[in-house]
């Protein structure tokens, strides 16, 4: 990836991270940790990979994105806002009474949200169905879905994976944010799904294991997805939970806790400095 394109994505990812902190701080609730670890893939999907039109969110031929780990809505909302689906200022209304930005994505209220999600494991099933529908109707549409490594402990996830392989959905790209932490602790201690890559290969997927916080590796993985025929694709992203905010990084306590005023100021100072460096 050339330096200019990478810089643009780094700026976008930093803006997304600032939106995550802004929204969860104002809500006094939410899930910043997994939203921050996913910020780079949100930036890549909406900054380079997907076909969509913010002025026409329901454009029939758009690519689809399903946030299967729906509690990371602050990351998705931030990406959508910075791409013009709705005002960035509205991120401050997250989870407030009367706001259209609920704690989990709602396709009926939020422009750009393709599926309402929240109950873990269900989003990937819908995404697989969308990919099958695109194949059935002859539409050139790719469907992307983002899961957490804790989420794939759900049995329904593996049923969806079987479905995608059975119907050779090569327009289906599952992305697993493997940051190693879930609400109750490390994934290894709670319910290890390893080896994730070997299991997905056995389920009939083409597999890429990458550093999910590196744009060159993200580009290589998505390029491989586009070259794969006759098989669904999965990107297993090794990431750092809470990345971008020093005191949140690799700290399980930030899975579902909002920063207080002092923590908010520290986070926004760090991210603001990063943004200024990138824009210089």
> What's the helix-strand series?
HHHEHHEHEEEHHEHEH
Helix share bin: 40-55%
Strand sequence of the main sheet, in spatial order? 1-2-3-7-6
Structural class call reads alpha/beta
Principal-axes geometry comes out as globular
Strand segment count: 7
- Cα-to-Cα separation, first versus last residue: 20 Å
Strand content: 5-15%
**Main β-sheet description:** 5 strands, parallel
Specify Rg, calculated over alpha carbons.
17 Å
DSSP helix count?
10
**Mean pLDDT, as a whole number?**
98
Which runs of at least 5 residues are low in confidence (pLDDT < 50)?
none
Q: Layout of helices and strands, plus pairs?
A:
Elements: H1 3-27, H2 32-37, H3 39-49, E1 64-67, H4 73-82, H5 122-137, E2 143-148, H6 155-166, E3 172-178, E4 181-182, E5 185-186, H7 187-191, H8 196-202, E6 206-211, H9 215-227, E7 233-238, H10 261-279
Helix pairs in contact: 1-3, 1-4, 1-10, 3-4, 3-9, 5-6
């Amino acid at each position: 990836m050339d330096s200019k394109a990478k810089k643009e994505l780094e700026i976008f990812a930093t803006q997304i991270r600032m939106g995550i902190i802004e929204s969860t701080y104002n809500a006094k609730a939410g899930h910043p940790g997994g939203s921050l670890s996913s910020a780079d893939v949100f930036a890549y999907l909406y900054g380079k990979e997907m076909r969509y039109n913010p002025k026409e969110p329901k454009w029939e031929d758009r690519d689809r994105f399903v946030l299967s780990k729906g509690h990371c809505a602050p990351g998705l909302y931030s990406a959508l806002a910075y791409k013009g689906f709705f005002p960035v200022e509205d991120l401050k209304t997250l989870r407030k009474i009367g706001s259209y930005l609920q704690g989990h994505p709602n396709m009926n209220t939020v422009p750009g949200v393709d599926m309402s999600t929240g109950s873990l494991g269900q989003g990937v099933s819908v995404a697989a169905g969308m990919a099958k529908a695109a194949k059935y109707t002859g539409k050139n549409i790719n469907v992307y879905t983002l899961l957490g490594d804790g989420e794939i402990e759900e049995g329904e996830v593996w049923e969806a994976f079987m479905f995608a392989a059975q119907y050779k959905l090569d327009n289906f790209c599952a992305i697993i944010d493997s940051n190693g932490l879930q609400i109750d602790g490390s994934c290894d201690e709670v319910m290890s799904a390893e080896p994730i890559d070997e299991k997905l290969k056995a389920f009939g997927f083409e597999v890429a294991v990458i550093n999910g916080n590196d744009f060159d590796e993200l580009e290589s993985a998505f390029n491989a997805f586009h070259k794969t025929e006759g098989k669904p694709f999965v990107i297993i992203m090794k990431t750092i939970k809470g990345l971008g905010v020093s005191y949140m990084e690799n700290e399980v306590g930030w899975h579902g806790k909002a920063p207080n005023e002092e923590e908010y100021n520290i986070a926004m100072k760090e991210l603001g400095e990063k943004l200024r460096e990138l824009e210089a």
